[in-house]
Amino acid sequence: MEITQEQVKKTAAMAKLRLSDEEIESLHRLLRELVARSAGISLPEEEASTAEPGEAAAAPAPFSRPQPGLRQEEVVALAPAAERGFIRVPRVMDHE
Amino acid sequence: MYEAVIGLEVHVELLTRTKLFCRCSTRFGAPPNSQVCPVCLGLPGALPVLNGEAVDQALKAAAALNCRINRISTFARKHYFYPDQPKGYQITQTRPLAEGGRVDLGAFQVNIARLHLEEDAGKSIHTPECTLVDYNRSGIPLIEIVTEPCLRTPAQAREFLEHLRLIMEYAGISDCKMEEGSLRCDANISLRGPGGSTAVVEIKNLNSFRAMERALAYEIRRQSRLLAQGKAVAAQTLRWDEAANRTVVMRSKEEAGGYRYLPEPDLPPLILDEAAIARACRLPELPLARKARFIGAYGLSEADALILIGDRMLADWFEAAVAAGARPRPAANWVLGEVARLRKETRHLPFTPADLARLIDMTERGAVSVAGAKKVLAVLAERGGDPEQIVHSLGLAQVSDREQLAEVARQAVAENPDAVRDYRSGKDRALRFLLGKAMKLSRGRANPQLLRELVLQAIADAERL
Amino acid sequence: MNELKSLSLAELSELLAARKLSSVELTSYYLERSRKYQKDINGYITITEDLALATARRADELRTREELPLLAGIPVAVKDNIVARGAPTTCASRVLENYVSPFDAAVVEKLSLNPLLGKVNLDEFAMGADNKTSAFGPVRNPWDLQRVPGGSSGGSAAVVAAGCAPFSLGSDTGGSIRQPAAFCGVTGFKPTYGRVSRRGLVAFASSLDQIGPLARSIADCALVLQAICGHDPADATSARQEVPDFRACLQADVRGLRLGLPRENFACCDEEVAGAVEEAARQLELAGATVHWVSMPYRDEVVTAYLLIATAEAASNLARFDGVKYGYRGQGQTLDELYTSSRIFGATVRRRLMLGTFALSGEDCPACYEQGLRLGRAIARHLDSLFRQCDVLLLPTAPTVAFTLDGEQDPLASYYNDILTIPANLAGLPAVSVPCGLSSGLPVGMQLMAPRFREDLLLRVGHTWQCLTDWHQRWPREVN
Question: Helices (DSSP H) in C268-415: which residue ranges?
Fold first, then answer.
């Protein structure tokens, strides 16, 4: 499986990271190496049931009454920008 | 010709006291960012814990839609960056809570592919300058119900969605208020023709039943036209623009980049025991069963029963009136007519089904006319009270006294000899005139059947004289 | 008072209980040492003097009225990826430079009567094994200021090694407690996954992360474990397992215990390191244990599994740092610009987020998360099989002693340094590093590993070892 530099750039876009050309280049090398190494490993066969016995998970309990969390002032104080109790961000053009 | 192939993805907000993974309140309409905590705000170090109440609600939904419930289901993170998605991912399920359901709507069947739990995102408000985010909705429990692409017309899609809403309401799973976003629908549509099928197009933002029906109809027209011109239909995500009455492109599916699902490492698989599943399957009466009962036990017409079950409050009202002694068919007529109209006008009903039952009884005994009873109901709706007293205070008590009405009839006949003559010469309209005069002399209180009999008698008597 | 730093937690506890020493005195002593060595060691990101003294006063005051828990009043240093109200939590990142958590981590709640000396330095978001990736400068090893303290809990290890804190809390994702403990000559304990609540630990790789203590001895670790272990209903991965009396576990010796030495894990180490650990095994044999060579053939598998799992989960966990709700926000007219300008992670974190995003985006790729899980399961199964042959695995903690600050290493090659510690995380096993010698004047760590929830075995072997030796009581010359 060949990794292209385009894929590296697409990955950076997905991760919302701004990378230098040198970083893209070195990541390209690193990813190629990782893929090659990973592909070179021959896995021991897993038995049919590999599910960990684990502890029996308890059924989730229903939460009782609501509990107070953070006050609006606390939320606003954490935020880099806020307006009338809302968190403010640059205008989003196309909404999902 | 082409046939539409439609599948729906429906998001239903569950009625729970607290959110899916934290103990914040789910109350609608609170001030922005006042019902949030580290978990639903995605603060560093916060961990989700599954709310069993949401699981119970989702299981009820699965049972109501005749789904097969998975003993083990798993949670996963679905990644995308968006301001109202506080963690950069949504916790959803990859191995769903339930699969393979079916809803039988008589004329057609809808197969449910899967039903799973997931958390809602916050809400973005877009202003011309910026986007404002409120996380109160973040973490509210949702179920996503995915149908198989088995719907063929926009009308079917609408009928299914309306019925789904009813089921959720009846089972107490959701209040399904589309205007508050507690029921949301996306649709997938493609056209199938002799030459194969078109690419699947997804339509989002279908926030009313009408919008969904119109958007689907629009897409069928648009895609048919493209096909007729020999053009291809692109696999796109569209948004329904209600104002412009058309669909607009949101983004190409190819650009989406994938959601990079990750099995949720903070939540172990959900393992259900038989008892939990059995508990979930104990459902209250669902709409179709109620309809059948209304027809079978009360002798209502199919049409009346259908309208009644479609409005749970009216259906409950109807049953309460019957329980208070009203005969079912007139009760249904009253509930579907006057009661529905008054509720629409006044938003609430200050009188009881028992009041209605008494009023119906009075009309049947001839103690008040139907017209009078409607006036009484209007007064009840306005300020409540006792039906009998209102009948008396408005002077609406119907006169069924033979002697008294015979006198009135004689007077009307005596005072209008021309009309009597006309009637005798075959003009039916003259009789209505005479009845009107007699009713007026009784100040509108005469029992109409009796009055008619007595006016005819008076005409006959006058002839003999 | 200079001898205070050599007292065990049990001894400090007795002095406090007898009111021969107040928590304010003890806390002031450690605050002073912390300040004194901060310039050289850079162990802290924030020293929280006011907070510490307020808690110390509260503990002293409460003690006049009631009997307090064993550790009450003894100050603690907490890794700066564990949130505590009233103190910044930076994760050694510019992204969280001014972030103050509105809630306490579960472990901080449990240590509410332990004065918080400060938040200690780490590799940015706990990603690294040398503490050089901290946005607030590297931590220096008290044994040699030109050398790294290890990582990512480098600050947690260094402040204990320098006598600036009687104990500290760290987190371990691939060796982040044990390796710095080895490099700094202290005892670092990674409990079984699920033993200690992760609530309030800023997640790096959620399925591998575990909080644990670093202290001057196994006996000290036992006391801290007793205080911080236990089921937390607010962490769905927290174990419902009952917590044993860890102090009682110290009573038993090693007679009859089978120690397994994974051959390959010695072969990959510096000779002096391997030699010191083998020598330790021999002494434990003299104390009544039996020693067996076993095989741990996995190498590429270990590193690859760790890389795929840890980076993928990190890419997911760090997605929340987007400049919207808290933390650093960059300049941007559009949403995308806002994100990319706000996510100003250092080079190492950027690289790992890229690997992780890649691992999550291609399911059919050999380098995907699923592959990492498969490898991890294979390694866990192998460890299970080893525990049918022996009770405790005994091996070096790191292939070398602490390396110098100026060295640069190829990123992929550097992961091979963690090959001895990663398996315990992949399998969720408890493991501890205890000092077992010096090589060129630098501490060597011996690692002990046991089956899940068998911390008692580690305490038995470790404590026996520390009763026989004094490696854990040595001080670096510079701070004594």
Answer: 271-286, 300-317, 335-342, 347-361, 369-389, 411-415
Residue B89's DSSP bridge partners are B79
C-alpha B240/C-alpha B219 separation (Å) is: 10
> Among positive and negative, which fits the CA dihedral B96, B99, B105, B110?
positive
Residue A27 and residue C341: Cβ atoms within 8 Å?
Answer: no
Question: d(Cα B329, Cα B351) in Å, to the nearest integer?
Answer: 20
SS3 content of chain A, % helix, strand, coil (to 5): 40, 10, 50
CB contact under 8 A, A81 and C329: yes
Residues recorded for chain C: 480
The SS3 assignment for C463 reads: helix
Q: What is the pLDDT of residue B447?
A: 83
Q: What is the pLDDT of residue C11?
A: 97
Q: How far apart are CA B8 and CA C210, in angstroms?
A: 43
User: Which residues in chain C are closer than 8 Å to A89, comparing Cβ atoms?
Assistant: 324, 335, 338
CA distances to B147, B187, B238, C340, C471 from B191, rounded to whole Å, are: 17, 13, 16, 40, 77
Q: Min CA distance, C255 vs chain A (Å)?
A: 30
CA distances from B73 to B260, B449, C133, C438 (A): 19, 68, 39, 51
Q: What is the mean pLDDT of residues B127-156?
A: 96
Residue B97: pLDDT band (50, 70, 90) is very high
Q: Which residues of B touch A56 (CB under 8 A)?
A: 271
Q: What is the DSSP letter of C401?
A: S
- Point out the catalytic residue in the list C5, C28, C79, C171: C79
Q: What is the average pLDDT value for chain C, to the nearest integer?
A: 96
Give the whole-angstrom CA distance, residue C161 versus residue C164: 8
- Mean pLDDT in residue range B332-336: 93
Helix pair C347-361, C369-389: axis angle to 10 deg: 100
For chain B, give every domain's residue range: 3-280, 287-393, 402-464
Residue C306 is predicted with a pLDDT of: 97
Residues in chain A: 96
Residues belonging to chain C with any Cβ–Cβ distance to chain B shorter than 8 Å: 82-83, 89, 91, 96, 99, 101-103, 105, 198-203, 205-207, 233-237, 312-313, 315-316, 319-320, 322, 324-326, 335, 339, 357, 360-361, 369
**Looking at residue B337, what DSSP letter applies?**
I
For domain C2-257+392-479, give the CATH superfamily.
Amidase signature (AS) domain (3.90.1300.10)
Residue spans of chain C under pLDDT 50: none
Q: How many Å apart are CA C111 and CA C168, to the nearest integer?
A: 11
Give the strand pairing for C431-439 and C187-190: antiparallel
Q: What ipTM goes with this model?
A: 0.96
Closest by Cβ to A79, choosing from C301, C326, C357: C326
Judge: domain B402-464, CATH 3.40.1160.10.
Answer: no
- Residue C272 to residues B441, C421, C436, C442, C445: CA-CA distances in angstroms? 123, 19, 11, 11, 11
**Residue pointed to by tokens 């010191």:** C276
The whole-number average pLDDT for the span B305-323 is 92
**Domain extents in chain C:** 2-257+392-479, 300-373
Q: Model's pTM, two decimal places?
A: 0.91
d(CA B253, CA C220): 57
Q: In terms of CA atoms, which chain A residue is nearest residue B34? A: A72
- pLDDT per residue over C259-303, tens digit each? 999 999 999 999 999 999 999 999 999 999 999 999 999 999 999
